[in-house]
Amino acid sequence: MISLTPGAATLDQLEDIYRNGTPARLIDAARPKIDRAAQVIERAAAGGDAVYGVNTGFGKLAKTRIAPKDTSTLQRNLILSHASGVGEPLSENIVRLIMTLKLLSLGRGASGTKWETVELLQQMLAKGVVPVIPGQGSVGASGDLAPLAHLTAVMIGEGEAFFKGERLSGKKALIAAGLSPIILGPKEGLAMINGTQTSTALALAGLFDAWRLAKTALVTGALSTDAAMGSYAPFREEIQTLRGHQGQIDAAAMLRDLLEGSEIRESHRENDERVQDPYCLRCQPQVMGACLDLLRQTAKTLHIEANAVTDNPLIVDNDDIISGGNFHAEPVAFAADQIALAISEIGAIAQRRIALLVDPALSFGLPAFLTPNPGLNSGFMIAEVTSAALMSENKQKASPCSVDSTPTSANQEDHVSMACHAARRLLEMNINLSHILGIELLSAVQGVELRGPLKTSPKLEALIEKLRKQIPALQEDRYMSPELVQSGHYVLEQDLLADAAQQLELLP
After folding, report:
1. SS3 180
2. Which family, according to the similarity comment (predicted)?
3. How far apart are CA 198 and CA 85, in angstroms?
4. DSSP code at position 161
5. pLDDT digits (tens, 9 = 90+) for 410-434
6. 141-150, 208-217, 227-236, 413-422 — which is least confidently predicted?
């Protein structure tokens, strides 16, 4: 169980929840602020002043007053009407992360929800009741309305949820877990669905996987460098520090560390007639370093957003209830667009390394398409083509979403962020990237082995040994697709730098 401090959750905690499904709950000290805010809302609901979402309608209907006796019906209707998503359900690990982020937001004590509501959300996480949330339907303002309404629908006994591998009605899932639906009080439905938690969870998932794959790309890039008998000189520290970008410095240091002790390097250090390598080898510190810096920048943004209060209206310290726009997910949309750029570029330079390795005109003595008997065998010929197709898909998907606003809700919400699908596309982009890097891993290891009896560095040799226990070398053509898929899963699920002496931190 992870204890969450509102406003101070770490990316490590959130990644644990995403990858491992570890349940989480707020620290006990969060309750007094939550209770106080709920009391403020109760007083407002009983008072005579119009307070948006408490005793008024929503959006364009904000001028319509709601009688105190109808406040619960108002909140229930809000959830039912806004649960309008379509498309395939988000994965359970994503939904658990959404629920956790909503806990963090409510835990700041500025939303006005009752502790009973917060506790049900915590119990759902603890007992594995995971709402079915369709992936499409949010424009990223006024928050992720449709997805979060599907989450909240389960809490009131509506909608659907996964529980112990079954897809049940929301009410049946709660009962099966020993829980009961709640009746929403004033503003509670609005507090639940206003917010950027769906967009932010998707962006965090995209970030976590992109960071792992960026580190993997340094491993596959090091292997490709040795397979192509590339020069190590471009990785020297002096070059990187003259420019000064931290990501570049870190990327070059990791490449030096991974390649330390390579016999292949020593074999051509003195008598290589080539003056310079192609950019896909030589400029790895510059390209990968820029990607590391970009991902770290987005990590800072998403870390702030994960701990933010993003519903509306909000209760501030003097008990004023203020309408604002924290639900607008522009920071998340920008972050998602930047992550998409990094994912695309990591794949683009990796694909060029694959193309180099299979081309005998560029690979410095390796056989065509990395097969010992080219002609009779095609080797990695079409695996390289597959990597090119995936690279092209990611280039297209990297087009910015944040600039594509459109008015909604009768022009009340006349500028929206498009953060939700900006972030959701990162999941598919990362899968594409994992397959590109999986193909590079197999190609580069094949190339290194074709340099035998010379060996690469001890660290890379250890990695090759692990890989070969799962996927054998390609001696003759065989049915390749399952092994390419397996290699893609391998690089997405494994931290290939876990045993490295030097580690790359997402938030240094």
Report:
1. coil
2. Belongs to the PAL/histidase family.
3. 12
4. E
5. 777 778 888 999 999 999 999 999 9
6. 413-422
Closest by alpha carbon to 471, among 439, 499, 493? 439
pLDDT of residue 56: 75
Query: How many helices (H) and strands (E) are present in the chain, helices listed first?
Result: 19, 9
Give this prediction's pTM.
0.95
Other C-beta atoms closer than 10 Å to the C-beta of 414 total 12
Strand-pair category, 2-4 with 24-26: parallel
What are phi and psi for residue 25, nearest 5 degrees?
Answer: -150, 160
Cα gap 134→30, rounded to integer Å: 31
- How many angstroms separate the CA atoms of 390 and 13, rounded? 32
- Helix, coil or strand: residue 163: strand
Task: Single out the residue of 78, 72, 44, 42 nearest to residue 59, CA to CA.
Answer: 78
394-397-399-401 Cα dihedral, nearest 10 degrees: -140
DSSP state of 365: S
Rounded to whole angstroms, what are the CA distances from 340 to 21, 41, 71, 245? 25, 40, 42, 21
Long-range Cβ contacts of 247-250 (<8 Å, 24+ apart): 247/288, 247/289, 247/290, 247/291, 247/292, 247/293, 247/294, 247/296, 248/285, 248/286, 248/288, 248/289, 248/290, 248/293, 249/285, 249/289, 250/289, 250/292, 250/504
Report which secondary-structure segment, H or E, holds 166: strand 166-169
The type of residue at 309 is: V
- Separation between Cα atoms, residue 220 and residue 497, nearest integer Å: 11
- The amino acid occupying position 201 is A
What does the block give as tokens for 183? 């009746």
Q: Look up 52 and say whether it is catalytic.
A: yes
Tokens representing residue 92 in the block? 């359970």
In the set 18, 52, 232, 490, the catalytic residue is: 52
Domain boundaries, the chain: 2-195, 202-310+321-493
The whole-angstrom separation of Cα 265 and Cα 270 is: 10
CATH class of 202-310+321-493: mainly alpha
